[in-house]
Design goal:
heterodimer; A: 198 residues; 10 helices; B: 97 residues; mainly alpha; 3 helices; 93% helix
Chain lengths: 198, 97
């Protein structure tokens, strides 16, 4: 956990001093490295024949977990937001990004620029906190808690972290959960905004 | 890149990796090396994410004014989703025994 925080802090410091081209290069490089990471997870999965039997046995949990994460995110985010003086639908919409900051910030900025900025910040924070807390959640609570923390990022950025700390046997569940939540993000935002009448 | 294309590429990368693993059947030494490779990939991705965040003025502008509320929403959303997923895992585990 300390290593992750140090690497992230070093990256933020580098981002403040590097020229514009360098951080664009870092972004593009990270995208390709993400594909390599996911492929490496795939290689690891192929060597474990027991994983698919376990996944088959737990298919109900694989489907229900992302739905529980979606419900918990919106309800928990809304409750916390209201307590901090935010409007109920604004807080629900921010939390309904499930960690997908690029989409939620763009969609909500069309309604209100400040709301877009807050959605960006809140969902970036979710990704950062999920990476930092993953070792603790997987070891002390449950690998499912780690997958839930990652939200939509469980299929990409946090997939490798889940595989590292929960074991490769949880990687298929993390991928499924992230993919379902990624697909649910535009739907959730659409429903919340329609209910709010914006 | 749109969402569907992004998801398809990631799913393809997973399948390609799985295919390579089935074909090459890496031994314990290679598996250990791949574990190290995964760790290095994760660290570089986190470093790149930090660089992107550090270079993004929107994040720094928003932290001062909206940071506390954004953090509260994030913590609320994460805590409730973790609790629900954990409770679901416990309930489904109990049903099996």
């Amino acid at each position: 956990m300390i290593a992750i925080v140090c690497i992230l802090a070093a990256g933020i410091a580098l981002g403040r001093i590097l020229p514009e081209g360098a951080y664009r290069l870092a972004g593009d490089g990270a995208q390709y490295l993400l594909y390599v990471l996911v492929a490496l997870v795939g290689v690891e999965l192929a060597g474990r024949s027991d994983i698919f039997a376990a996944a088959k046995a737990r298919w109900k949990q694989a489907i229900l977990t992302p739905l529980a994460v979606a419900l918990g995110s919106v309800a928990g985010g809304m409750a916390a937001g209201v307590l901090c003086g935010l409007g109920a639908w604004q807080a629900a919409a921010i939390a309904g990004g499930y960690g997908w900051y690029s989409l939620s910030s763009v969609v909500l900025a069309q309604v209100d620029a400040q709301l877009g900025a807050m959605a960006f910040l809140a969902n970036v924070l979710r990704e950062i906190l999920a990476i930092i807390l993953m070792p603790l959640l997987c070891r002390r609570l449950s690998p499912w808690a780690g997958i839930a923390a990652g939200g939509a990022t469980a299929m990409d950025v946090t997939l490798g972290v889940v595989s590292q700390h929960a074991g490769a046997e949880y990687a298929p569940f993390a991928f499924i959960s992230g993919a379902v939540l990624t697909a649910l993000t535009p739907v959730t935002l659409g429903i919340i905004m329609a209910l709010a009448g914006v | 890149m749109d969402t569907a294309a992004g998801m398809a590429i990631l799913a393809l990368a997973l399948c390609v990796g799985w295919g390579i693993g089935k074909w090459a059947k890496p031994g314990p030494k290679a598996a250990r090396a791949m574990g190290q490779g995964q760790k290095i990939c994760v660290w570089v991705i986190i470093l790149a994410m930090g660089i992107r965040l550090g270079a993004d003025e929107r994040v720094f502008e928003a932290i001062g004014t909206l940071g506390a509320q954004a953090l509260a929403v994030t913590i609320g959303a994460m805590a409730a989703s973790i609790l629900l997923a954990y409770a679901l895992g416990r309930a489904m585990g109990r049903r099996k025994t």
